[in-house]
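I'll show a sample.
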Amino acid sequence: MKRILWAVSYGLIGGLILPFLFKWIEYATGEKVYTFLLNVDYIPIVGDIAFPEWVEVFFHLIVSIAVALGFYLLFQLRPSWKKRALPICAVGSVIIGIALFPTTALSDRTPELTDGLAFLYWVLGHAIFGAVLGIFFKFEK
Protein backbone atom coordinates (compact mmCIF):
# COMPACT_ATOMS: atom_id res chain seq x y z
CA MET A 1 0.00 0.00 0.00
CA LYS A 2 2.87 2.35 0.82
CA ARG A 3 4.29 1.98 -2.70
CA ILE A 4 0.90 2.76 -4.23
CA LEU A 5 0.76 5.97 -2.20
CA TRP A 6 4.23 6.86 -3.47
CA ALA A 7 3.04 6.28 -7.04
CA VAL A 8 0.06 8.56 -6.37
CA SER A 9 2.44 11.24 -5.08
CA TYR A 10 4.59 10.87 -8.22
CA GLY A 11 1.48 11.46 -10.31
CA LEU A 12 0.60 14.52 -8.25
CA ILE A 13 4.06 16.03 -8.54
CA GLY A 14 4.41 15.36 -12.26
CA GLY A 15 0.80 16.37 -12.74
CA LEU A 16 1.41 19.73 -11.06
CA ILE A 17 4.54 20.45 -13.10
CA LEU A 18 2.63 20.11 -16.37
CA PRO A 19 -0.05 22.78 -15.77
CA PHE A 20 2.52 25.26 -14.44
CA LEU A 21 4.74 24.62 -17.47
CA PHE A 22 1.84 24.87 -19.92
CA LYS A 23 0.43 27.98 -18.25
CA TRP A 24 3.82 29.65 -18.59
CA ILE A 25 4.15 28.55 -22.24
CA GLU A 26 0.65 29.83 -23.01
CA TYR A 27 1.41 33.15 -21.31
CA ALA A 28 4.78 33.52 -23.06
CA THR A 29 3.79 32.36 -26.55
CA GLY A 30 0.01 32.57 -26.83
CA GLU A 31 -0.15 28.87 -27.75
CA LYS A 32 -3.24 27.49 -25.99
CA VAL A 33 -1.58 24.39 -24.48
CA TYR A 34 -2.71 25.18 -20.92
CA THR A 35 -6.26 25.75 -22.11
CA PHE A 36 -6.07 22.46 -23.99
CA LEU A 37 -4.69 20.59 -20.95
CA LEU A 38 -7.69 21.61 -18.86
CA ASN A 39 -10.27 21.36 -21.64
CA VAL A 40 -13.24 19.04 -21.12
CA ASP A 41 -15.51 20.61 -23.76
CA TYR A 42 -15.70 17.40 -25.77
CA ILE A 43 -16.86 15.16 -22.90
CA PRO A 44 -20.65 14.68 -23.01
CA ILE A 45 -22.59 16.36 -20.17
CA VAL A 46 -19.37 17.37 -18.34
CA GLY A 47 -18.39 19.59 -21.27
CA ASP A 48 -21.53 21.66 -20.81
CA ILE A 49 -20.52 22.75 -17.29
CA ALA A 50 -18.31 25.80 -16.73
CA PHE A 51 -15.93 24.55 -14.04
CA PRO A 52 -13.60 26.84 -12.12
CA GLU A 53 -9.94 26.52 -13.09
CA TRP A 54 -9.00 24.69 -9.88
CA VAL A 55 -11.56 21.96 -10.64
CA GLU A 56 -10.17 21.56 -14.16
CA VAL A 57 -6.66 21.23 -12.68
CA PHE A 58 -8.07 18.64 -10.26
CA PHE A 59 -9.45 16.65 -13.22
CA HIS A 60 -6.00 16.78 -14.82
CA LEU A 61 -4.42 15.54 -11.58
CA ILE A 62 -6.77 12.56 -11.50
CA VAL A 63 -5.56 11.62 -14.98
CA SER A 64 -1.92 12.16 -13.94
CA ILE A 65 -2.38 9.88 -10.93
CA ALA A 66 -4.01 7.24 -13.14
CA VAL A 67 -1.05 7.38 -15.54
CA ALA A 68 1.41 7.07 -12.64
CA LEU A 69 -0.52 4.10 -11.26
CA GLY A 70 -0.44 2.53 -14.72
CA PHE A 71 3.35 2.80 -14.79
CA TYR A 72 3.49 1.49 -11.23
CA LEU A 73 1.51 -1.57 -12.32
CA LEU A 74 3.76 -2.03 -15.35
CA PHE A 75 6.86 -2.01 -13.14
CA GLN A 76 5.22 -4.47 -10.74
CA LEU A 77 4.53 -6.82 -13.64
CA ARG A 78 7.96 -6.27 -15.20
CA PRO A 79 10.38 -5.39 -12.37
CA SER A 80 13.43 -5.59 -14.63
CA TRP A 81 12.03 -2.67 -16.65
CA LYS A 82 12.31 -0.36 -13.66
CA LYS A 83 15.98 0.30 -14.42
CA ARG A 84 14.77 1.84 -17.72
CA ALA A 85 11.89 3.72 -16.07
CA LEU A 86 12.90 7.14 -17.36
CA PRO A 87 12.72 6.36 -21.10
CA ILE A 88 9.74 4.04 -20.62
CA CYS A 89 7.71 6.68 -18.77
CA ALA A 90 8.83 9.50 -21.08
CA VAL A 91 7.99 7.60 -24.26
CA GLY A 92 4.75 6.28 -22.78
CA SER A 93 3.67 9.78 -21.77
CA VAL A 94 4.56 11.15 -25.21
CA ILE A 95 2.41 8.43 -26.79
CA ILE A 96 -0.47 9.41 -24.50
CA GLY A 97 0.04 13.08 -25.39
CA ILE A 98 0.08 12.32 -29.12
CA ALA A 99 -3.06 10.19 -28.76
CA LEU A 100 -4.86 13.03 -26.98
CA PHE A 101 -3.80 15.83 -29.32
CA PRO A 102 -6.50 15.14 -31.94
CA THR A 103 -9.16 16.00 -29.34
CA THR A 104 -8.12 19.62 -29.88
CA ALA A 105 -10.27 19.50 -33.00
CA LEU A 106 -13.34 19.02 -30.80
CA SER A 107 -13.16 22.50 -29.24
CA ASP A 108 -12.90 26.04 -30.57
CA ARG A 109 -10.96 27.17 -27.44
CA THR A 110 -7.93 24.95 -28.05
CA PRO A 111 -5.16 24.99 -30.68
CA GLU A 112 -5.94 23.97 -34.21
CA LEU A 113 -5.14 20.35 -35.02
CA THR A 114 -2.61 21.63 -37.56
CA ASP A 115 -0.80 23.94 -35.09
CA GLY A 116 2.68 22.44 -35.19
CA LEU A 117 4.12 24.67 -32.47
CA ALA A 118 1.31 23.80 -30.03
CA PHE A 119 1.85 20.13 -30.87
CA LEU A 120 5.59 20.48 -30.19
CA TYR A 121 4.98 22.14 -26.80
CA TRP A 122 2.33 19.53 -25.99
CA VAL A 123 4.65 16.62 -26.76
CA LEU A 124 7.64 18.16 -24.95
CA GLY A 125 5.50 18.86 -21.89
CA HIS A 126 4.33 15.26 -21.80
CA ALA A 127 7.91 14.05 -22.22
CA ILE A 128 8.88 16.15 -19.18
CA PHE A 129 5.94 14.75 -17.22
CA GLY A 130 7.00 11.22 -18.13
CA ALA A 131 10.64 11.91 -17.33
CA VAL A 132 9.65 13.14 -13.86
CA LEU A 133 7.68 9.95 -13.27
CA GLY A 134 10.53 7.87 -14.65
CA ILE A 135 13.07 9.48 -12.33
CA PHE A 136 10.85 8.82 -9.33
CA PHE A 137 10.22 5.20 -10.29
CA LYS A 138 13.83 4.51 -11.21
CA PHE A 139 15.19 5.65 -7.85
CA GLU A 140 12.32 4.31 -5.75
CA LYS A 141 13.45 1.77 -3.17
